[in-house]
């Protein structure tokens, strides 16, 4: 019967870092879409430039829509009583903003929080940092003399 040395066991057993990296790369994003939902005539921070400091995002699965489940975040700029008003919300159709009483310039997007201000690095930045940290930890453990047996 062969015996396993600590270094053999370390190489043959997937480390927590490898599992974490794998899950980060292949796990699907959360099923519920989160969008900013507001209108600038009620909440001035909803206008452009967008300021979400006091706003909270909405889980769009809780927003009733005409034709089904929300798959898009929307942002619309419209004229209401001679003033520019911004509407941000959830939508079930690409290119369709749900506020039909005040038609205007509408855009839709598919990622969480995408109907707010642009963020440097977009949604990929947190994943890149986590993956890089996990790879550094893994490399340190696999290096000769690195990590506990």
UniProtKB/TrEMBL annotation:
Entry's Gene Ontology cellular component terms: side of membrane
Keyword Transmembrane helix in annotation: yes
Predominant location category: membrane
Record membrane topology: Lipid-anchor; GPI-anchor
Signal peptide from the UniProt entry: 1-32
Naturally occurring in which organism (per UniProt): Gryllus longicercus
The entry's keywords: Glycoprotein, GPI-anchor, Lipoprotein, Membrane, Signal, Transmembrane, Transmembrane helix
Protein name: Protein sleepless
